[in-house]
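Hi everyone, sorry if this is the wrong subforum. Our group has a chain we'd like a structural model of before ordering constructs, and none of us has done structure prediction before. Sequence below.
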Amino acid sequence: MDLPPPPPAEIAPPPFRVVRPERQVMPVVFASPHSGTHYSAAFLAEARLDPLSLRRSEDSFVDELFAAAAEHGAPLLAATFPRVFCDVNREPWELDPGMFDGPLPAWVNSASPRVGAGLGTIARVVATGEPVYRHKLSFAAAEARIRTYWQPYHAALAALIAETRASFGCCLLLDCHSMPTHPATSSPPADFVLGDAHGTSCAPRATRLVEEALSGMGYRVRRNDPYAGGYVTRHYGVPRERVHALQIEIARRLYMDEARVERAPGIGPLQRDLGRLIARLAQADFGFLA
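Answer:
Right subforum, don't worry. Here is the predicted structure as tokens:
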């Protein structure tokens, strides 16, 4: 009797995708590190949470919101893997010793506040605080993720920044994220939070340019509260080297159903407004960054 063929092997996508313009016309790079949606069967099998619970840690659809970048002359880098699997907005080796079945190398950063919160490079918990895994991991598994996903993503980001600075004399990195709704918030919530590490990662004039463009469209914009910028912003934003980094957090309530992780009707208007922001950046004189 003929045996049924084995199931096809799962083919993972590359760890990132870069959407390039026909010609780059502005010294701006857009990045979406947390909008990846490829949850491998192996990862889902070792997780104790259902896929929907895991997806609530995503910055869902943020890469779609900035899809107009290439149309207006700027590259867009997007991770394809999910944040809960490997977080590229952390140092490469921020690991929680309690997650692993053996001792970690001495050079691992196990004492950072992110690790303490369970949100290191390999997350111990999801955004709601629930543990991700059924069992402890091996360090070899974490190392494989970092070398296969974290390092290629950052190599691609560093290359885009270097190319942009070489072509224009400077680079502005816009690191794009989304922020959940907090029901306990008493004051009117912000629609956008711009994080420039309290003025250290980006020229104030560039932050103000983005702020004024969004405010002019009627959005409530706040700076550095409660998100001043993560690893990407602080690591790449070195104004004295003519590289500026600004983190953009977008309120999820503007464009998605947060419980179901689905697009809401507001995603179209918001995407159009972000297209207007990108078009304005394409017309800006960034000589002050060089």
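For your construct planning: Residues 16-284 form a domain with the Aminopeptidase fold (CATH 3.40.630.40). The longest helix spans residues 139-168.
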